[in-house]
Amino acid sequence: MLYTITLKGQTPLLLHAMTQETLLGLLNKGAGKNKNEAKGTPTHKDGTPDLEAICRQHLYTDPCDESKLVLPSTMLFAAMREAGRQFKLGKQQISTRDSTTLPSFFSILEEHLQLMNPDTGEPAKWEVDVRRGVNQANKAAVCAVRPIFRRWGVTFTASINTDRCEDTLVRSILDEAATAVGVGSFRPQRGGPFGRFTVVNWEVVEQKAAAE
Q1: What is the domain extent for residue 79?
Q2: Residue 111: which of 66, 76, 67, 148 has the closest Cα?
Q3: Using CA atoms, how far apart are residues 119 and 114, in angstroms rounded to an integer?
Q4: Count of structural domains within the chain
Q5: CATH number at residue 57
Q6: Which end of the chain lies in a sparser environment, N or C, as judged by fewer CB atoms within 10 Å?
Q7: 201 lies in a domain?
Q8: Low-confidence residues in the chain, pLDDT < 70
Q9: Exposed e or buried b for every residue in 124-142, given b needs 16+ CB within 10 A?
Q10: Distance (Å, whole) CA 82 – CA 80
Q11: How would you class 185 by CB atoms within 10 Å of its CB: exposed for 0-12, middle for 13-18, buried for 19 or more?
């Protein structure tokens, strides 16, 4: 069965997309090549950091229309996978640390979910957020500069194989992901308050055997 699902942010959303330079650096490192020189921190003409330019580097955009700011559906799926550790399908746990059966009965059809302001119906807007962070490699304090969305929401199409799993169980997994896991940076799963959401619309749009 196909469902239209709308989520509304309950706490602000912090994003921190990996830059293209970092990705290419990982590719070169994995291939045993010399790593390309990384671009420096964007600055103004007076040499001070350009915080807005730094944030723009960490936004997710739709490859078909880069003016659209999006939440990758893989982030939401990952949150549900983590939440699946709290649920069983029959006698089998849906997710463990290393594996999950979630894809066998649930999928999100869109790859990129446009971020919208749930109050106005217009594209969500971001601000610069600067706060103390921690380098996980050495636990040193760092300055984290990231875009933050105060008001945000997404709508997507989900396919649920109701022959394998009741949609009520999928809804419970999504509700658990909304409050206990979250999406984005410094979310509840990582000990933070950001990226929590609630389900505001859950509608059957096509009664059809679910995800392949």
Answers
A1: 2-16+50-125+151-206
A2: 76
A3: 15
A4: 1
A5: 3.30.70
A6: C
A7: yes
A8: 29-39, 208-212
A9: bebeebeeebeeeeeeeee
A10: 5
A11: buried
